[in-house]
Amino acid sequence: MAASEESPVRWGVLGAGGIAGKFCTDLVRTPGNVLAAVAARDAGRAADFAARFGAPRSYGSYAELAGDQDCDVVYIATTHPGHREQALLAITAGKAVLIEKPVCLNAADAREVFGAAAAAGVFAMEAMWMRTNPLIRQAQQLVADGAIGALASVRAELGLGRPYDPAHRLYDLANGGGALLDLGIYPVTFGWIFGGPPRSVAVTGTLAGTGSDATVAMQWSYPDGRDAQLWCSAPLAAPFRGLLVGTEGWIRTEGRFYRPTALTVCVAGEESRIEDPLEPGDFGYSPEIAEVARCLRAGLTESPLVPAADTVAILDLLDGARAELGVRYPGE
Ligand SMILES: NC(=O)c1ccc[n+]([C@@H]2O[C@H](COP(=O)([O-])OP(=O)(O)OC[C@H]3O[C@@H](n4cnc5c(N)ncnc54)[C@H](OP(=O)(O)O)[C@@H]3O)[C@@H](O)[C@H]2O)c1
């Protein structure tokens, strides 16, 4: 039975790792949604995860989850190199998919996945939760309304401070390692949603011992003189900051810019603060979960908040930055 107003959206979680646990903490308390099943490569770990979150079914293979008839949408929560094949598996079985960021290792694979979803008539979305966050959406509305005048500059940066470890997924190219795909996708998406596609891009960066990108800076330019300065680092620790500078003022995100705890808005020297409307303890995935449920109930095949065309275009930019830095994944 497909999701309707009366029945909750039934989620299957594919991969029982770090992000899956955070997501499910929010999922089980988001009204109108239930965790129906979990799959992991190891049946015992899947069963433990299911017990932790009260899921009625667990599987030791991803194919079994794709074949679960009592599941509406598969959330793909594995490391990036698996996303393409796992998304195609679920789509072929007629399931809607929410795929963790980055949706695929590169734009070509992402085009294939979204093309398959369109051909099958099923919903597909990158789990770029920042775009569903209420404070980010409010900042977009404020900019669109001219609250800070004409937007002149967009800045976003984050440094994870994870020391170099060739075995960690952040540095291991075979497991999709690299700062850009794991971290840089947030500042780049921030630049995109506020500034739009740049006319030109300058990239500088450093590589880790494995050949993965460690620290990357991007400077975007626009024909009207606007700019975006976007930065990410795996090994260096730095605040997760977002700043929008307009001709009449600025907006600063408080807390992590992709999941702000507040916005500070300054117009003509006067600062005001907009507080986070989410419930205390919400990791910030509930707006994304609610948006997927809304789209499924409305019969949409993509979310207007996270359009597939944007996801692919952002991966094109990341492909270009990786090419400049000489970062390639096995098989590319
Ligand atoms: N939206 C967010 O806030 C957010 C935060 C963190 C990460 N992410 C994204 O979520 C994804 C998973 O990140 P994570 O931190 O959760 O990773 P993780 O805990 O290291 O791994 C997640 C799952 O991926 C599978 N996996 C891990 N290493 C693998 C390997 N070498 N070969 C095959 N499968 C492997 C495993 O699935 P099984 O359980 O089936 O074995 C594992 O449980 C990444 O794409 C990341 O970019 C998103």
Which CATH C-level class of the largest domain is it?
Alpha Beta
**What is the tally of helical segments?**
9
- Topology order in helix (H) and strand (E) letters: EHEHEHEHEHEHEHEEEEEEEHH
Structural class: alpha/beta
How much is the radius of gyration in Å? 20 Å
| Total beta strands | 14
Bound molecules: NADP nicotinamide-adenine-dinucleotide phosphate
- Average the pLDDT over all residues and give the rounded result: 97
- Poorly predicted sequence stretches spanning 5 or more consecutive residues: none
Terminus-to-terminus distance? 40 Å
Tell me the number of structural domains.
2
Spatial sequence of strands, sheet with the most strands: 8-9-10-7-11-12-13-14
| CA-based shape | globular
Topology (elements, then pairings):
Layout: E1 9-14, H1 18-27, E2 33-39, H2 43-53, E3 57-59, H3 62-66, E4 73-76, H4 83-92, E5 96-99, H5 107-120, E6 124-126, H6 134-144, E7 151-160, H7 179-195, E8 200-207, E9 213-221, E10 227-233, E11 237-246, E12 249-256, E13 259-267, E14 270-275, H8 286-298, H9 308-325
Parallel strand pairs: 1-2, 1-4, 2-3, 4-5, 5-6, 7-10
Antiparallel strand pairs: 7-11, 8-9, 9-10, 11-12, 12-13, 13-14
Helix pairs in contact: 4-5, 5-9, 7-9
Bound molecules: NADP nicotinamide-adenine-dinucleotide phosphate (NAP).
NADP nicotinamide-adenine-dinucleotide phosphate binds at residues 15-19, 40-42, 45, 77-80, 82, 100-101, 127, 129, 169, 175, 182.
